[in-house]
Write a structure and sequence with these properties.
The radius of gyration is 21 Å and the shape is elongated. The protein is built from nine helices and no strands. 38% of the residues are buried. It has 193 residues and is mainly α. The protein starts with a helix and ends in a 5-residue tail after the last helix.
Length: 193
């Protein structure tokens, strides 16, 4: 970082935010900024995560703001926060990727797929279900995924852990036979002891 003052503030600001939010924000304002971030943005993110308040995230910088929102969502384990990710005009692939990452990060500790239904955003909902099924294998969780490709991917990861080779037939092969083949291959390969 630019100087030792920046490092000292960053080390202490999370604890300070819990006790005195206005003072923590004042400390962040004293720090230096750079074109794509710097200590000031790191400080604001630490305060936002410590307080669980995404309004503190530096949203004027899309990458840093999105990272901040994702980290708050992860701390609170709240996928609804992911809908606050800044959307870039004319960049649907990037927007979907940012929401996917946020949803994935926010449910790392979750076990109940019902939390995924708290959002109407299809990408966030399906990613949430996929991650819970991956971390706690359950074919019923995969079945709740709306997007066929994501559902098939989910089945291809979960069936080898909790199902049988015959269960692989649930994976549709309209345009992409690879998920079913990957699932079936697990059952035809010799298993290590």
């Amino acid at each position: 970082y630019a100087n030792s003052v920046d490092r000292t503030v960053l080390e202490d600001v999370g604890a300070l935010a819990a006790q005195n939010l206005p003072e923590a924000l004042k400390q962040c304002d004293k720090l230096t900024t750079e074109q794509y971030g710097g200590p000031k943005y790191d400080c604001l993110e630490k305060v936002a995560v410590a307080t669980g308040d995404i309004s503190i995230c530096p949203i004027n910088t899309p990458v840093r703001g999105d990272t901040c929102v994702t980290n708050v969502a992860r701390k609170l384990q709240d996928i609804k926060i992911c809908t606050k990710i800044m959307q870039q005009e004319n960049d649907n692939a990037r927007n979907e990727s940012k929401k996917w990452l946020c949803a994935r990060e926010s449910v790392q500790e979750a076990t109940n797929p019902d939390i995924c239904l708290e959002t109407e955003d299809g990408i966030i909902r399906d990613t949430c279900l996929l991650e819970i099924a991956r971390n706690h294998p359950n074919m019923n969780t995969c079945a709740r995924i709306n997007t066929k490709d994501t559902r098939n991917w989910c089945y291809s990861m979960v069936i080898p852990k909790v199902g049988t080779r015959e269960d692989c037939n649930i994976i549709t092969v309209d345009q992409n036979p690879f998920d079913r083949q990957r699932c079936e291959d697990v059952f035809t390969q010799p298993r290590a002891n």
